[in-house]
Amino acid sequence: MKRQGGFTLIELVVVIVILGILAVTAAPRFLNLQNDARESTLQGLKGAIDGAAGITYGKAAINGLEAANAADAKTVDGIDIIFGYPAATSAALNAAVNGMNDWKFVSEGNGAIVYTYEGNSKTSECIITYTQAASISQAASTLFTTGDACTGTK
């Protein structure tokens, strides 16, 4: 009669204990990936806004509208522009930037518009501010993160 091969109960317990130790040491490293994901989401939107502003300026320059100020009220591809860059309004940024669905409009005025991430309960700690061009200078977007709303730290 042929003897069946297999693992003993002690061998199986040893393997399970080793896997448990590995899981305990590796889990904190993987849990910190949430912080990186939140930060990357913010950086991604900032990059999208900056990229859309640059593309809009390029289209405005091709059409000779890069010097148009707020009083001129010009548009490029349905985007209101000021000095060639998108105006700081929710309509202009939504037309210029794809993927604003996860971001909640907070306020606009004085040449700036503020968005916050929809999933956060602490909206004042996780915001993106876009400031329209004040002259023939480049528009700017600013990333503002504090506390645990964006970084995930406690």
From TrEMBL:
The keyword Protease appears for this protein: no
Name used for this protein in its record: MSHA biogenesis protein MshA
KW Glycoprotein (keyword) present: no
Record NCBIfam families: IV_pilin_GFxxxE
UniProt keyword terms in alphabetical order: Membrane, Transmembrane, Transmembrane helix
Pfam families: N_methyl
Taxonomic lineage: Bacteria, Pseudomonadati, Pseudomonadota, Gammaproteobacteria, Vibrionales
TM helices/strands, residue ranges: 12-31
